Amino acid sequence: MSYIITEAKIFPCTQSIELAQKIANSYGAELGNVITSKYSDGEFQPSYEESIRGTRIFIIGSTNPGPENLMEMLLMIDAAKRASARHITAVLPYFGWARQDRKDKPRVPIAAKLVAKMLEAAGATRIITMDLHADQIQGFFEKPVDHLFASTIFLPYVKGLKLDNLMIASPDMGGSKRAYAYSKALECDVVICYKQRAKANVISHMELIGDVKGKNVVLVDDMVDTAGTLTKAADLMMERGAISVRAICTHPILSGNAYENIENSKLQELIVTDSIPLKQKSDKIKVLTCADLFASVMHNVQYNRSISSKFIM
Prior knowledge:
The protein is about 30% helix and about 25% strand. It contains nine helices and 14 strands. Keywords: ATP-binding, Kinase, Magnesium, Metal-binding, Nucleotide biosynthesis, Nucleotide-binding, Transferase.
């Protein structure tokens, strides 16, 4: 008996509904019908309002804090499992809690591993995500993980700027591998920022490894939170003779004083994806959609086609 591939269905989590609609449009499908009932104490219950029995479903939602975003994804997965979906693919444009990927001091959790296990326990059979904070997080899962790179979105944009004397920069030592990959694709040099933190989100000292004089610098990172590191690096590079400084950051968390920091910095432009919706608009922030990337990968996953070109830097 031949195996018939049924059409996949796409469902959004609340905070990612705008991105999910873009993905569905690019995929060539309608968003599935799901409603969320809320109780006065803050508890909520998602409900699929159509049959998903025997189908592959894609649940789209970033899991950045607060905890309700992760909880909604878990409840959506659990509901799908109990409704007899054949395959449940959790599409996490931003995989939250990923900065806690190891024990960096005694008596702390490894939250990224815990989140991975929670997603699997809820019933996810596959994970699709983009620009994990640490590549080794893929190993926290026992289910298949498709780890996409936003470089497929950013590189054409940077090339289109046609900047002379281009230089790629990493805002810290941990991002040097990503910076070198971009520099190889763009055939330019790399500078690294060495920073020391007084505590989380607070930098006590920063120094440059490399010369930026006369260069148009593009900083590359996986996320921007308070923008303290990026803006301090941009200001330092301009002081050291850079012509201009831009930044590429996949996930715009932008918490605390981030918008104020960006506006008051010497950053010419911050380029991000729409993996997380912006809290407010800024003339300095350019948003590139990741919808086409995810839609293409989801389509290939549905029809068992190769997706290797989508996650090789």
